[in-house]
Amino acid sequence: MKLIKPEWIEHGPKESLSSLHINPEGIRVALAGKYNAVDCIRIFRLASILDETYQTQSRLLCRIDTQCPLCVRFAYTSDVLAVASRQNVLLYHLTSTNPNVTNLQSSSSFGDFPETWRLRSSLSSGHVADILDIAWCPLNDRYLASCSIDNHICIYSWPSTTLTITLRGHTGLVKGLAWDPTGLLLASQSSDGTVKVWSSTTWQCEQTIKEPFDGCAESTSFLRLDWSPDGTMFTTAHAKNNTFPVSACVIRGASTVDAEFVGHRREVTCARFLQRILLINGRRRCLLAIGSKDRTLSLWLTSPRQPMCIINDFFASGILDMSWHLNDNDGLITLGICSPDGACAFIIFNKDELGTPLTRHEMEKFYSDMYKVNILIPTKTITNGAPMTNGNGHSHHLQQSTVKATLANQTERRLGDGRRCIKPLCIDTHTPAPTPTPSPALPPPPPPAPTSNSSSTPSIRHMPTIPIDPKPTKGVIRSSTSSITLPSSISSTTLFPPLKLQSNLIRKINNEYELRTEKSDQFYILSCINEKTKLVQWKNIFQSPLLAIQATKNFIAIVTLQETQHCSELFILQQQSGLRLYSNIVLTQTLASLYISENTNNIHRATISLIYITGLLTVFDITRNSMTCPIIDVNIAHLLPPHASIVDIFTLNHINSDTVCLITSTGHLYGFDNMLKHWTCLFHKHDFVSDFALPSELTSSGPLSTLTKSYGATINDDIYQKTLYSSPNRDLLVSAYLETQIHRSRILHSSREYYFWLTSFVRFLASSSLDDKSLKLKSILDHLAEHVHSTPTNSNINLMPLKTKDEYQNLLNECLIILRNHDDASTLVQHYE
């Protein structure tokens, strides 16, 4: 076994990888992710990774820039690369090779490459949200399946590229797909806690497995499962045995888990079988690789199930995707692994090191005997030293001459900015080709010995006819440079389901007005109807469908979906007239929720909150004449445990201070600390005030008190309070609560409440039986005296609600007055007086 982690495949803080796949011939490996802060796919020559002596000038074969590529998969029978990009499945075809290109920098997205991959089809009719996984039907590519965060699975026919059917049944994000070796069954795993098995003959769900997956899939970006090469079972991604993460094994036709692969400390994200049965000591075994978020890779043999290899701390982050390849010529078995930290690695097993794999003919006979189906495994194999064909069996020389002859009839026009718009043509590859003369192909590696003339000639594999979209492509231009990318700090992990388009949206405003949408002549009209008179008060028109509408008495927030550009836009309208107040704002990610709340102190002010599917929050504070953005792409996923939701988001205004607040269904109220740029808890249902902590005649007034009175009555937990009152540690609990209230007042810049809670804390400590109360009182008085007798720095002034020395002097005097009534504090009083 040999482990290779190529450092020249650059990775760093701006890089990430989401998918890796080795093509069936073992020539190429595709890596999808972010490189130099640009979303792209890089196709490398596999031989240059496995052989250190390979020429470095021809490692990178091609680079394709596309939006948010989350999964890449090569087809089995043709040189086609399927890419999951946003809501589309993009199909790239290898159209030509450039053998004269020998020196290329992998960081460049311009210039020539050793290979040319062209976008020929875009499957965009199925999903309305980001696609997480795709899978070709083995081994004839009859179908291409894709799954998305819209909870659906789409099946496309190949090569017609038409949508065959949309499978509905999951109620959560579908994060993984896998065909069985015969192509008769399709398994899918979702965040709804189920795994379903679908029949490709009836497209009905034949199995639903729930038990080990319930509530355990929310924390993983992908759930990439796989079938064993014998088709008798499939192994899932993240499952649980009690509280321990495992990978579950489900027998074909069964509705329960047969066995579990245990040992990983965190969630399993990917499981991949070597798609050949191994003979070990005369017995048939299957080889399985399991990757986890704990940065560990484990290799298993089945029957009996036992781990044969464990590699710890493989990457700086977890493992997201893996791909196997078996070279029939030299018997080498290669496993490729990628991680979201931008690194990839490859494990090479020598011939017979793991066992003897069945030959292609033996695998075909096995499928015929066991499942009564005839499956022909592709036989195209190319050694590292053999010339590389273009995927249809023709040499580079012949293909280039064919392309040049065809391009003579290709139409081209220039745009105003100088860019070229070229009409695509279908190049027929089914015509029998004459025997080509020998010509140099891509630069071969320096071989240790001359290639033998007795090596077998690669069999010809024809590329299916490429369908051309009959729709006009006027004005549609794909940029050949970088695509639109997100900031590097933004995670692409999907946590919340996206908003779905509805044919007609209806919203009521205080039972006085009704907002209604309708489609007319490819446009979308928003009407405001008076509930009393039933008359239309005003109308506004949009070119894109309306995804969400929220309103207050004075403002209306609207999000539209730009389907052609795969982005959303925010519009803000005046409620009385329907006029647009600001320019439309392009949102950075797919929207999950839209909130708007009216300011309690000023009805002409509102807070608009946008929550993206990645768990990020953006907040706009608006008035009739101004608009600010106090929060930009701040993570809130950690504030919501599983099955929790957001009740409301609003801005709390107090004097010159504005605090964005968030209320969850679990009874927590959080405020955003603008100084520290983090969330802090301002109230939750386990808060309490002890009877002896505060005299009944004392009450605070201010923003913190307003929050407590508004939400404490509805979400406070009386049973929990009773438990705390009977606790032997209640003095410590009260002390901790009062300290928390002091700092909450500071965050809200409420000087009155800061004054109130600090004096209440001093009063409680003076009368309590805590052993360390003298130390705490002295620390409080030292803190106040320091501000009285010194000049605070600017940073201290910003962090403290009290700004002047006189305010601290009055607070110190008040504390000393409280302590005078307690004999055990007389020494402290005399010292500070």
Automatic annotation (TrEMBL):
GO terms for cellular component: chromatin; HIR complex; nucleus. Pfam families: Hira, WD40. WD repeats lie at residues 167-208. GO terms for molecular function: nucleosome binding. Keywords: Chromatin regulator, Nucleus, Repeat, Repressor, Transcription, Transcription regulation, WD repeat. The keyword Nucleotide-binding does not apply. Gene3D superfamilies: YVTN repeat-like/Quinoprotein amine dehydrogenase. Residues 578-773 form the Protein HIRA-like C-terminal domain. Residues 433-450 have a biased composition (Pro residues). The keyword Repressor applies. Residues 427-479 are annotated as: Disordered. GO terms for biological process: chromatin remodeling; DNA-templated transcription; regulation of DNA-templated transcription. It is found in: Nucleus. SUPFAM superfamilies: WD40 repeat-like. Its main location: nucleus. Required for replication-independent chromatin assembly and for the periodic repression of histone gene transcription during the cell cycle. Belongs to the WD repeat HIR1 family. This is Protein HIRA. It comes from Rotaria sordida.
